[in-house]
Amino acid sequence: MPLRLHHIVFDARDLPGLARFWAEVLRWRVLSEREREVVIGPDEAAPVGICFMPVTDEKRVKNRLHLDLTSEVEDRDDEIERLLALGAKRVDIGQTGEESWVVLADPEGNEFCVVRPKVTLIS
């Protein structure tokens, strides 16, 4: 059997807090919560989830890997505002202002993007 992606893993100082943030962002739920591991996903049968593991050090540099999120075209601005209300922050990683995405960071500083829907890329 070939390898499959099981979890995307985030290092976190506040496991339950960061897990709840991302569960709200993705409209997922907490599937498992232990002292040293919290897992979120759309449901228990989902092929991939996000796992949060403890670290003591603070994030200091730009992520080498990040998530790109998207929505329907008409919902994009409202979704960005919802993410900001949940605790995301706008961050500057050198964008010019002409990009088709918005760069945000979660409460622990992990960057992610809200990109325009793929349907807008083909028209």
Automatic annotation (TrEMBL):
SUPFAM superfamilies: Glyoxalase/Bleomycin resistance protein/Dihydroxybiphenyl dioxygenase (SSF54593). It comes from the Bacteria. It holds the Pfam family Glyoxalase_6. Residues 4-117 form the VOC domain. Gene3D superfamilies: 2,3-Dihydroxybiphenyl 1,2-Dioxygenase, domain 1. InterPro entries: Glyas_Bleomycin-R_OHBP_Dase (IPR029068), Glyoxalase_6 (IPR041581), VOC_core (IPR037523). This is Glyoxalase. It comes from Phytohabitans aurantiacus. The lineage of its organism: Bacteria, Bacillati, Actinomycetota, Actinomycetes, Micromonosporales.
